[in-house]
Amino acid sequence: MSEEALVLRQDKDGIARLTLNRPAARNALSRPMIAALQAEFDRIAADPSISVVILAGNGPAFCAGHDLKEMRGADYGERYAEDLFEACARLMQRIVSLPQPVIARVHGIATAAGAQLVASADLAIATDDARFATPGVNIGLFCSTPMVALSRNVSHKHALQMLLTGDLIDAPTALRFGLINEHVSGEQLDVAVEALAVKIASKSRHTLAVGKAAYYRQAELPLDEAYAYAKGVMVHNLQARDAREGIDAFIDKRHPTWCHG
Questions:
Q1: What is the value of pTM for the model shown?
Q2: What is the DSSP letter of 194?
Q3: Which tens digit of pLDDT belongs to each residue from 28-59?
Q4: Are 180 and 172 in contact (CB under 8 A)?
């Protein structure tokens, strides 16, 4: 893709790196940016060569949320807003439903829909100086759609603290809340993200897809239904060639050779 593309993609060794590319706008999620990101995730979902995705931002920030200038330019129209928030919801659900795990690589700020991206990703590593917020309450537009992802990542009281105050929280607080997995120095960010991506990419793609889908499905079920569902997943998973290869390799004390099926 050209440097002018709204989303840049680079593939290497089973890892797809998607980079939001509106640095002057702090990678604000305009309607075209959402469409471009949706298209890339859809392509990755159908790409059997990709095991894991890294989601990053170009320039000084990860993502500053929705594009408020675009909203104002559309005169806050109801039809525009309906289309915008529907597209954004579809994007966040695509991240969750993607067969491949998604790692958010966060620096600078991740606010509003940017924080929603972090919460929607399966894993997140941030710089020590990264900041997170759902600040809609400060401008009279409550972060209702970011709330959906946020409330599924952190405790109710932590989510409501962010949503009701709109305050920025730092990376250690985001780690304590459960919004991110780890924070590192800026110099170590790419090293840490790459190491995690490489580790995940070394697993069976089939097993990763089965596991990710099962995790999100069981999380919404009552305990007895979750166990019944997970039992079925394991029974089916055991029939896969990679499960049998993995067990044989463990018993034989050798590295497995995945066929990803």
A1: 0.96
A2: H
A3: 999 999 999 999 999 999 999 999 999 999 99
A4: no
